[in-house]
Design a protein that fits this description.
Distance between the termini: 63 Å
Oligomer: single chain
Number of helices: 6
Shape: extended
Mean pLDDT: 85
Largest sheet: 2 strands, antiparallel
Helix content: 55-70%
Structural class: mainly alpha
Order of helices and strands: HHHHEEEEHH
């Protein structure tokens, strides 16, 4: 084998290994492509698939287990966000909703400040955005886990000819073939 082909194969193998390493570290496909020097995320994905085809099944199962452990760790982190309480903050201050006026616990009279104005009390406003973002991340983790472990049912597409299109196409093809074979009028021999 000429040295140039050997060098090209070695370089291609090295690029695939870089792509796999970046993927294992958690980079997305765009970043994997850039780090490994591929022109697109599709090329990087194809290279990783080629790399994996050369792996023994036992090692692939080991890698699948490693990926599942990483997904489990990510899921735990997302659940921490979901379990935490979040309040709305604007301009560096917690946003509150008027809840009433402070009262003396014994006399139940409204408490007033030094100017004689009633002292307002506020309830913190819950910020649901972090929880919604966490749910979106959980769904992505669940989808990835399902793909990784083959849990998704295969998609079956069935095309049914309800309108007789096949018959119509066959009729038109027959007419076309007949026109191609027959001699046009006025040109007979």
């Amino acid at each position: 084998m000429p040295p140039r082909q050997t060098r090209a194969r070695v370089e291609a193998k090295k690029k695939r290994e870089i792509a796999v390493e970046a993927l294992v570290k958690g980079y997305d496909w765009d970043a994997v492509a850039i780090l490994a020097g591929y022109s697109s995320r599709g090329s990087a994905c194809q290279a990783v698939n080629e790399y994996l085809r050369g792996y023994p099944v036992e090692e692939l199962e080991e890698w699948r287990s490693l990926e599942n452990l990483k997904l489990n760790r990510l899921e735990r982190e997302v659940w921490k966000v979901l379990d935490a309480e979040h309040v709305v903050i604007q301009h560096g201050k917690i946003v509150g909703r008027f809840a009433g006026y402070a009262t003396d616990p014994e006399t139940h009279e409204v408490l007033r400040d030094n100017d004689g104005k009633p002292i307002a009390t506020y309830d913190e406003v819950t910020d649901h955005d972090p929880a919604l973002r966490a749910v979106a991340q959980l769904l992505r983790i669940y989808e990835r886990r399902a793909k990784l472990n083959g849990l998704d049912a295969p998609v079956v597409i069935r095309v049914e000819d309800e309108e007789g299109l096949d018959t119509e196409i066959e009729t038109l093809m027959g007419q076309l073939n007949q026109n191609l074979v027959s001699v046009p009028e006025g040109h007979e021999g």
